[in-house]
Amino acid sequence: MKRQELECGSGILPLKLLKSRLKVLMASLILLLIMLPLSAKLIELQVLDPEGKALDNVRVTHAGGTAVSDSEGKVAVSSRSERVSFSRLGYNDLSLSLKDIAQYTIVLQRAELVHPLIRVRELEYRSATPALDTELIYSDTNSATRSGADLLLDTSSFSSSDNRLLGERQTISLLGSFSRHTLVLLDGVALNAAGEAFDFSKIPATQIERIEIIKGNSSAYAGSAAIGGIVNIVTKSPLRARGLDINAHSSIGSYSMARQQYELSYLQKAWTLRVNYEHYFARNDFSYDAWWDPGNSYSRKHNAKTADNFFLKTAFHSGKQNLEYTLGLGSFIRQLPGPINFPDLYDDSRLSGSHSYHTLKHQWQRGELRNEAQIFHQSDGSSFRNLASTNPLNPSHYAQAQINIGVQDRLSWMWRQSSLEGITEYKALTYDFTQHNVYGSGSTTSKGERDNFALGLRAGQKYGLSFVQGYSQLSLRRDYADSEVHDSWRAEQDFSYQASLKYRLGASYGTAFSLPSLYDMYWIGDSETMGNPELQSEISEGYSLRAALEHENWQVQAAYHLNEIENLIQWRQIFLFGSHWKPFNVGKARITNYELSGQWQLSRLLSVKGGLTLTEAKDFSIKEDGSPSATYGKHLTYTPRLKSQLALKLADESRAVTINWNHTGEQYSTVDNLIDPLPGFSNLDLDLMHKFRIYRFELMLDARLANILNQRYEIYAYIPQPGFNWATGLKLSYSLR
Known about the structure:
Layout: E1 5-8, E2 11-14, H1 15-35, E3 42-48, E4 59-62, E5 65-68, E6 74-78, E7 83-87, E8 94-97, E9 105-107, H2 111-114, E10 135-138, H3 148-153, E11 158-159, E12 173-174, E13 182-186, E14 189-190, E15 208-215, H4 219-222, E16 229-235, E17 243-253, E18 257-268, E19 271-282, E20 287-289, E21 297-299, E22 305-318, E23 321-335, E24 350-366, E25 369-386, E26 396-415, E27 418-436, E28 443-465, E29 468-481, E30 484-498, E31 502-514, H5 518-522, E32 538-550, E33 554-575, E34 579-601, E35 606-619, E36 634-635, E37 642-651, E38 655-664, E39 681-694, E40 697-706, E41 714-716, E42 719-720, E43 725-736
Parallel strand pairs: 3-9, 13-16
Antiparallel strand pairs: 1-2, 3-6, 4-5, 4-7, 7-8, 10-15, 11-12, 13-14, 15-16, 17-18, 17-43, 18-19, 19-22, 20-21, 22-23, 23-24, 24-25, 25-26, 26-27, 27-28, 28-29, 29-30, 30-31, 31-32, 32-33, 33-34, 34-35, 35-36, 35-37, 37-38, 38-39, 39-40, 40-43, 41-42
């Protein structure tokens, strides 16, 4: 049996030994949380209102991160903070130098007493998925050449089997789960509610403020498809101060890539507006090596991509109410060259499509009571055509369309250290698949419908245990989907101790489910594929353990995840009047993960961060008679056993240089694991930025050099990846306030 090895420095470490050492490292980290001496210095501040009353729930941002004042208005900040910022709903934001804070007491002025003119203040944002272990990823404003998928793939928790060039489809896998097991939300509204994998290329990075990530079973927060976790994309809000911002960015790059991006933000009294538009074209005809013809290089032809994306968010604020409308529109045309072992079959194929996302949201707040109601309408359609290929063995022409409409309401109450939230949601989904007759007129249509009604309840409590702060949270949800009822829950516990260092221990346990996608159920197929309307929902149960040690200059986190999935859906080949592919509930899978990550601010300008994720994802399906299936104990396909990342960044306000190294381990491409796994590969990328400011104008030059080492590799069988490629751009910004 072939020994699986990991290259490490100058030696070779077996993967099992590496896992064993990672377990020891996690145990050591937990021990450090308990025994490490307290050495750094924190300063305790107290935040008061104009009458001298303590203000709780004030957000305080300092060098050590973000903290919240307690019921006595007290909060600890790092003594090395140059500036400290304070923010609370109903009060004016305040930013001060730490040395200017007298007697360590802060007084926040009420907004209406200081500014008689109407000022737009958004209601305090509360996440639609407030898990205790939520991780945040912020969009890098110093790099306009990056995509939304890049923000996720630069962490070791995520992987993808798709091409990372601009215009290519981008689906994401979280902690070794299938892409469809990651529920993607846009400002709290599910984008892949029908059970399919979400294409992140539909959301340009210019629209993203930050991304919130919950790992593990999370259906109790947002419903179906959250087996691997949740990715909540939070879009940019209009400016919070009176003014006008205009940005224009143009970039060019490898393979005839050209992109233009335009952005406008405007605020006038109680009305705010943000608009983004993007257009790009990329030929993407890169060269690659073929294993059957070593020494020669081939070109990936018929691979051009073009797309347009439009985003608008506008809001009107009055008192403690806020009305907000969000619109996202997109269209694309993609040539699809197919696998390199059958290029002649797909040299005329192309996919075109469009989508639209509408959301109308109303928020109001009365004291500690807050309500958020929204209605949404999403449509997504595409058409595939391959009728004139060089080898017309399997011509095809089909179209599919999906519509998701619904309403959602969240009523929450927060009092001191307690929180309670009720959720009501209704969604109606429709799916149409049309197969056109390629040899004549006429077509065949298949339709699918699904109604989903859900009720949820979430309760949380903060408390003190001697010198340790605890936070417990329980989330419950019931979904009625068609004739099925799914109950999901998630229990979370977090303990922290703040002194010179911050120690954190946490755990979560929960369940999740994933309804079979309407695509899998009602796909008519061609001569080789067909859908399966008898598919059952996938269900899962699992837990996570985590520990963290945080200093004002560095942080280290470790975690362990276990997830077991029943009724796993996979496409399998059957032989009935010929060979066909069809989806089935094949049985059971188990996924375990070991994670280690950290970051270190070496100096004011220099920082380093990295992560390592080890994954074991195996099929443990058994037959009806109790005997092991043919794939029992086999690794799940396209699940890398190792993912690691290391980034070094040197930056100030005007310049930035980032070197990013990513490694993806070997992964199997067949369910029986009989074919050798695809070998692992590494990528080394470089990002550069330089800003110039002239009066109210700002000019930014940025560049991205990807795969500097020109590695030739495959993530998906017979789908090559590009070698070295580059992109550079110029951004002009104007601000009037």
